[in-house]
Design goal:
heterodimer, A: 557 residues, mainly alpha, Cytochrome C Oxidase, Chain A, 16 helices, B: mainly alpha, Four Helix Bundle (Hemerythrin (Met), subunit A), 7 helices, 75% helix, 0% strand, binds protoporphyrin IX containing FE, binds copper (II) ion, electron transport (chain A), Cyt_C_Oxase_1 (chain A), transport (chain A), heme (chain A), metal-binding (chain A)
Chain lengths: 557, 208
C-alpha cells in the first residue's frame, strides 16, 4: 500500500534515542517522560490482556460441555472473577490511559503531562496491583465475581478476597492519579492558540472520562474499605443478620461501576473520533455534538447506576427513574454513532487496519448499545438479569467496543510511537479473524440468555450444549487472532519500514513532530495551522488549500 | 544519551516544582499544583460522601437508631475537640498570611500551633475511643462510628505530617517566601478539607 513511499519522506529533524543500544532500559525505569510511561502502560496492560485471555479460555473450555469436568466449580468461579477483574482494571482502564498518556500531551502541543512524577507513580502502581490479584490463585482465588457482592464475597476464602480488595484499591488509586493528571494537563497545558473548542476530540473524551474517574472511583474505595472490615473484622455493614444492609454495597459499587463502563468506553470514543476522519479524509461530522455528548454521557452516567439493581428490591418508582435515565444515555451515545457514520459517508476511505478496526468498533458497539437499551427496560431486564444475555451485552460493548477501538488506536498511532509502520496484510488478517471469532463467540450468547442460561455457573442444562460449543470454538479463534497481531507488532517494532512524521497526513499536533518524538516532544514550537479535522476533501474548491495545509504539517503529499 | 534525556526532563520538572526559585519564574512555568491538589481533594471528598451516604442509609433502614443497647454518646469531649479543630484552621491561616509577608518565623510559629492543636484533637479522639463503652463490631452504629471517625483520624494524621514536613522544610533558608509557598498553601488546603469533613461528621454522627 502506502508503505512504498515512506522512505522518501521528511527526515526526523534530529537523531534521537532510538538508535541508542540501551534504549529499551528506559522502559523498565521510573521514567517521567509521558511517552515512556504511555508505552509502559500499553505493554503492561497488553500482557495482562493475554493473561486475562488465558483465564477466559479456561472458562470457555469448562463451558464446552454441560458438566463441570474441566476444573472444579470453585476454581471456575475464580477463573471468571479474576478474568473480569483483569480485563477491566488491568487491561482496558490502563490501556486507554496508556494511549492518553502518549497522545494527549503531543496533541495539545505540551512537553509533558502536568505532573510527570505523579504520572510515573500512577503507572508503577499497576504491576503490584496486578501481581496482588494474580497471586490470589495461590491462596484460593476470589470467586464472587468482579462485583464481589456480599454476602457471597465474605463467606468464601478470606485470603483470596482480601487480595482482590487490595488489588482493586491499588489499581483504583492509580486510576485516580491518572485522572488528576489528565484533567490538569488538558485544562492547563494546551498551547496558547488552542481553545477548548480547538482540541482534538480525544482530549474532550479524556476530560469526560477523567472527571468520571475522579468522582466515582473513590466511592468504590469506600465500599471496598467497608467490605474489607466485614471480611476481616466481622463488622455488620453488609450483613442483614446483624443490622447491616447488603444493598448499600451494591449502590456504592455501581455508583462506581456503571460510570466505569464509560470510563472504559469514553476514551475509546475519543480515539475513534480521531481515527475515522483521518482515514476517511473528511472533517468530523458534528465536532461540538461529539464533544459535548461526552460531557452529557459523563453526567448521565453518574445517575443511572441502579439499572444494575432492578432485581435487588429497588422500589418501583426508583426503577422508573433509573430506567428513563438509562434510556436517555442512548441519546448522546447515538449522536456519536450517527456522527461517525456521517463522517464515513461519502469519504475517501482508506480501508487500512486502523480504519477496519474503527468501523468494526462502530458496528459492534452499536449491537452492544442496542442490547443495552433493551436491558434498560425493567420488565425485559428482570427476564434476562444474570443470564448470558448480560454476558453478550457486556462483551459487545467492552470487546466489540473498547478492545476493537484500542486495536484501531494501536494501528493508528504505532508509527508515531515506534517510528515504524505495521504490516497491513497481517493487520487485516488480525481484523478479520478477530471480527469473525468475536461474533461466533458472543452473538449466540444473546440466544442462550433469552433461553435462560444463567451466567457464572460452571454447569448448565444439556440443551444448551451445541451453542456453547460454538461459543467455545469462537473463543479459540479469538485467541488465535491475537497471534498475528502480536508478531506483527513485535516484528514491526524491530524491523518494520520506517515511518515518516505524518504517514496518515493527519492534522492534529502529534503528527507535527518526528516519529517517535524527541524528548520533550517538539523541536520547533508546534503551530496550530488548522482545526484538528479540516480535511475538506469533499469540497473540491478547498482541495488546493488542504494540500498546502498538509505540507505545512509535514504530511506526505 | 538516555541519561541526559532523563536529566533534561528532570530539570524541567524541578523548575516546575521550583521551591528555591525566585518569584519571576512563576510566569515562565505556570504552577498547576494547587489545581492538582484541588482535584485530589474532590476525589477525597467523594470517599467521605460515599461513606456518609452509607451511614445515612444504614440509619434510615434500621428500625431503631442507634440500635438497642448502644451506650449514650458523650457530647462534651467531641464538642471541645470540634472547637479545637475548627479554630486550628484559623490559626493555620495566620501562618500562610505570615509567609506571604516573607515572615518565615511566623509561618513556623503558627504552623507549630496548628500541629499542636491537631495532636490535642487526636489525643481527645483516642481518649474517647477508650471511654465509649462499645466495640467495633457491637452493632451497625458502633461499626460505622469507628470506621468513619477512624478514617477521618487517619486524614488528620496525614495532615499533621504535611504540617510537620512544611515546618521541617522551612528550616532551610529561602525555601518559602512570599513568592513561593506552595507547600504551606497545599498543607493549609488539606487541613481545611479535613476540618470541613469533621464538621459534617460531627453533625451526622453525634448531633443528628
Ligand atoms: C446505550 C448504552 C448502554 C445501556 C443502556 C446499558 C444498559 C445496561 C444494563 C441495564 C445493564 C444491567 C443488566 C443486568 O445486570 O440485568 C448492563 C450491564 C452491563 N453493561 Fe451496559 N449499557 C450500555 C452501555 C454499556 C457500555 C458502553 C459498557 C462498557 C463499555 C457496558 C458494560 C456493561 C457491563 C460490563 C454490564 C454487566 C455488569 C455485570 O453485571 O457484571 N454497557 N448494561
Ligand atoms: Cu450500567
Amino acid at each position: 500500500m502506502t508503505t512504498a513511499g515512506i522512505e522518501t519522506t521528511v527526515k526526523p529533524p534530529e537523531p534521537h534515542g532510538e538508535s541508542d543500544g540501551n534504549n529499551w532500559r528506559k522502559y523498565f525505569s521510573f521514567s517521567t517522560d509521558h511517552k515512556v510511561i504511555g508505552i509502559q502502560y500499553l505493554v503492561t496492560s497488553f500482557l495482562f490482556y493475554l493473561i486475562g485471555g488465558l483465564l477466559a479460555e479456561g472458562v470457555r473450555v469448562e463451558l464446552a460441555t454441560p458438566d463441570p469436568d474441566f476444573v472444579d466449580p470453585q476454581l471456575y468461579n475464580g477463573l471468571f472473577t479474576v478474568h473480569a477483574t483483569v480485563m477491566i482494571f488491568l487491561w482496558i482502564v490502563p490501556g486507554t490511559a496508556g494511549f492518553a498518556n502518549y497522545v494527549i500531551p503531543l496533541a495539545i502541543g505540551a512537553k509533558d503531562m502536568a505532573f510527570p512524577r505523579l504520572n510515573a507513580v500512577g503507572f508503577w502502581l499497576i504491576p503490584p496491583g496486578g501481581i496482588l490479584l494474580l497471586s490470589s490463585f495461590f491462596v484460593g482465588a476470589p470467586g464472587a465475581g468482579w462485583t464481589s457482592y456480599p454476602p457471597l464475597s465474605v463467606v468464601g476464602d478470606k485470603a483470596g478476597q482480601l487480595l482482590w480488595i487490595l488489588s482493586v484499591l491499588v489499581l483504583g488509586t492509580s486510576s485516580i492519579l491518572g485522572a488528576i493528571n489528565f484533567l490538569s494537563t488538558i485544562l492547563k497545558m494546551r498551547i496558547p492558540d488552542m481553545e477548548l473548542n480547538d482540541m482534538p476530540l480525544f482530549c474532550w473524551a479524556m476530560l469526560a472520562a477523567s472527571a468520571l474517574i475522579l468522582v466515582s472511583t473513590p466511592v468504590l474505595a469506600g465500599a471496598l474499605i467497608l467490605l474489607c472490615f466485614d471480611l476481616m473484622a466481622g463488622t455488620p455493614f453488609f450483613n442483614p443478620m446483624a443490622g447491616g444492609d447488603p444493598v448499600v454495597y451494591q449502590h456504592m459499587f455501581w455508583f462506581y461501576s456503571h460510570p466505569a463502563v464509560y470510563i472504559m468506553i469514553l476514551p475509546v470514543f475519543g480515539m475513534i473520533s480521531e481515527i475515522i476522519p483521518v482515514h476517511a479524509r473528511k472533517p468530523i461530522f458534528g465536532y461540538q455534538a461529539i464533544a459535548y455528548s461526552s460531557l452529557a454521557i459523563s453526567f448521565l452516567g453518574l445517575i443511572v447506576w441502579a439499572h444494575h439493581m432492578f432485581t435487588s428490591g429497588t422500589p418501583g418508582w426508583l426503577r422508573m427513574f433509573f430506567m428513563i435515565a438509562t434510556m436517555a444515555i442512548a441519546v448522546p451515545t447515538g449522536i456519536k454513532v450517527f456522527s461517525w457514520v456521517a463522517t464515513i459517508w461519502g469519504g475517501k476511505l482508506r480501508l487500512n487496519s486502523a480504519m477496519l478496526f474503527a468501523i468494526g468498533f462502530v458496528s459492534m458497539f452499536l449491537v452492544g448499545g442496542l442490547s443495552g437499551v433493551m436491558l434498560a427496560s425493567v420488565p425485559f431486564d428482570i427476564h434476562v438479569h444474570d443470564t448470558y444475555f448480560i454476558v453478550a451485552h457486556l462483551h459487545y460493548v467492552l470487546f466489540g467496543g473498547s478492545v476493537f477501538g484500542i486495536y484501531a488506536a494501536v494501528y493508528h498511532w504505532f508509527p508515531k510511537m515506534t517510528g515504524r509502520m505495521m504490516n497491513e496484510f497481517w493487520g487485516k488478517v488480525h481484523f478479520f479473524l478477530t471480527f469473525f471469532g468475536f461474533n461466533l463467540c458472543f452473538l449466540p450468547m444473546h440466544w442462550l440468555g433469552l433461553q435462560g442460561m444463567p451466567r457464572r455457573v460452571a454447569q448448565y442444562n444439556p440443551e444448551f450444549a451445541t451453542v456453547n460449543m460454538v461459543c467455545t470454538v469462537g473463543s479459540f479463534i479469538l485467541a488465535i487472532s491475537t497471534l498475528p497481531f502480536l508478531f506483527n507488532a513485535i516484528w514491526s517494532w524491530i524491523a518494520g519500514p520506517k515511518a515518516s512524521a505524518n504517514p496518515w497526513r493527519a492534522l492534529t499536533l502529534e503528527w507535527q513532530t518526528s516519529s517517535p518524538p524527541p524528548v520533550e516532544n517538539f523541536i520547533e514550537e508546534p503551530v496550530l495551522w488548522s482545526g484538528p479535522y479540516e480535511y475538506g476533501i469533499d469540497t473540491l474548491s478547498d482541495r488546493q488549500s488542504v494540500d498546502e495545509l498538509l505540507t505545512e504539517v509535514k504530511g506526505e503529499v | 544519551m538516555q541519561g541526559s534525556a532523563i536529566e533534561t526532563s528532570q530539570t524541567t520538572l524541578d523548575m516546575q516544582h521550583g521551591h528555591g526559585h525566585a518569584g519571576g519564574h512563576h510566569e515562565a512555568h505556570p504552577d498547576h499544583r494547587i489545581f492538582g491538589i484541588v482535584l485530589f481533594l474532590i476525589a477525597e471528598s467523594m470517599i467521605f460522601l460515599g461513606l456518609f451516604a452509607a451511614y445515612l442509609t444504614f440509619r434510615a433502614v434500621s428500625p431503631e437508631w442507634p440500635p438497642e443497647g448502644t451506650p449514650e454518646m458523650e457530647l462534651l469531649l467531641p464538642g471541645i475537640n470540634t472547637i479545637i479543630l475548627i479554630s486550628s484552621s484559623f490559626v493555620m491561616n495566620q501562618g500562610n498570611a505570615a509567609i506571604k509577608k516573607n515572615n518565615v518565623g511566623g509561618l513556623r510559629a503558627w504552623f507549630g500551633a496548628t500541629a499542636l492543636m491537631g495532636v490535642v484533637f487526636l489525643c481527645g479522639q483516642l481518649y474517647e475511643y477508650f471511654h465509649t463503652g462499645f466495640g467495633l463490631t457491637d452493632n451497625i452504629f458502633t461499626s460505622t462510628f469507628y470506621v468513619l471517625t477512624g478514617f477521618h483520624g487517619l486524614h488528620v494524621c496525614f495532615g499533621l505530617m504535611l504540617i510537620l514536613a512544611v515546618m521541617w522544610r522551612s528550616l532551610k533558608a529561602d525555601r518559602y517566601s512570599s513568592a513561593s509557598h506552595f507547600g504551606p498553601e497545599a498543607a493549609e488546603l488539606y487541613w481545611h478539607f479535613v476540618d470541613v469533613v469533621w464538621i459534617v461528621l460531627f453533625l451526622i454522627l453525634y448531633l443528628l
